[in-house]
Sequence to fold (125 residues):
Amino acid sequence: MFGSMSPDGGLGFQLMAYRLDDTFEALRRSRESSGIEHAYDQLLGLHNALVNRYNALLAEAQQIEQTVQHQNARMAELDQQLRKKEEVIDRLTRSSDEDFDRTLSLLEELDGLRKEVERLRSQQG
Fold:
């Protein structure tokens, strides 16, 4: 019964499953001859409940794994977008720094030209 289930249930769970399978086999053989049909039915119900719970947990684990994979993909996408935006900001910052330096240099040249014009005017005047 448990042979078809996924082996990732853990060693303890598998051992319990094998013991239940052995117990069921023994009960099947002696069911009619010993009159323990009610106990067998109860044990079978317990076995089925255990299988259903295991399958539910397995489905939940698979759903969680899918969610984690989706979130990891989304984080990678957002990281890539962030890197692109950081590159743009760096480029604009460098450009602004270069523009500032160029503007400062032009202002210094302009100041030098004003001083030269004032000197020439004072010589003429």
